[in-house]
């Protein structure tokens, strides 16, 4: 029976029913095709209003089902895609942006590296013996015999680049054989100094076997380390030897005051009068003074004063002053942006019973050698004036207290106590031992001020812990005034000051003390463990 629709489809005059193909049933049709057949037949019925005759035709069932299913599927997929795209477009955009920056971070920095693919000797011939610091992950010769001029980074950016690409740095440099004509560099002199990380950084700095050949086109290590660094001449790197990169970490932060705690090697403690056995690796010259905080954890073979401080400092200064050795010009210091700024090296004596022995070894075997002494600030005995050079050596801790100041070498200065200077009421610098920067602890200075407040009567010593409990914001006005007066007193003697023992936690309280010390009391140096924190406080 023919079913008429409410809106019948009118057939065009040029369409003949006879021309419409009749679907042929396929053999072996499935159940799905059988169920679809009635629907197809119903859909195939039309009314020809022009002739008034009901005519029925059939669209091929399999073709109709295929077309209908395909169109519905496409329409569904397209609609779903648009819906999901709209729903997750912010997520997709975020993923694309993050991916972009990851790619840029990974591959753009190496583009800053020199494009030279081969190094040349001073006479212009190609040097084929250079070994690369970087593996082929970033391409060959990214940091090659062109020296350490290739990468356009310095300071903390340089350190961040090194840390980011640490896995890419080749270990071949540490194990490569030195050429016969190679000059001593940081790696060959230190030879596994502090840690694998430290040694890789040294190798990273020198970049090739001829890194210190002083060619005109080469940048100095000082420039690489500090070119874009602003010197912080008010910060002392407390326990500098504890850092992953002693000396270098401070320089890249802009800090010009560092510290090494020294101990006499046990090999010499047993009998300090014996001759040194240079054939014994644990008893040679370079291991005489070990560097560390705790006697039980010393490693004099690798972590000693010569490896961690004397050699690196001398090599940096030799390089930056190579062209000035035979001139009367002032020697350059360790900061590229302020070549006249001296760097302070505190030597902290840890053995009071051996202080004089350690002092003699320090002065005669380390500081007093001609190649190193020329960089040291000294006090002219004739004029009684201080002649400043790139390094200032200050003895602190349990150093020997000589009554005759002339027993001290002219190139060493003493870390005198601020409170003792105030209490002794010293009038002139000539009345005190040679000094440039003096210090005291916050606890001792506060106890002094408490005593002053009580009319110099004996009072219960103030512990720093109890002080923190009652000073949750800052120092009060009376304490500030007393401490300011004490600092001003020693400043009038021509001395700079450093206050140590400031609580490190909570951070907001530490930062409050730092600001009061620098701004209100006008102290010259902060005693800092957190170098990153002092950059932003």
From TrEMBL:
Keywords: Membrane, Signal, Transmembrane, Transmembrane helix
Region (Disordered): 1-40
Keyword Cytoplasm appears in the UniProt entry: no
Transmembrane segment boundaries: 90-109
SUPFAM superfamilies per the UniProt record, alphabetical: PLC-like phosphodiesterases
InterPro entries xrefs: HAT_RTT109-like, PLC-like_Pdiesterase_TIM-brl
Biased composition (Polar residues): 1-17
GO molecular function: phosphoric diester hydrolase activity
GO biological process, one term: lipid metabolic process
Family: Belongs to the AIM6 family.
PANTHER family per the UniProt record, alphabetical: ALTERED INHERITANCE OF MITOCHONDRIA PROTEIN 6
Name recorded for this polypeptide: Altered inheritance of mitochondria protein 6
Organism in which the protein naturally occurs: Hanseniaspora osmophila
Phylogenetic placement of the source organism: Eukaryota, Fungi, Dikarya, Ascomycota, Saccharomycotina
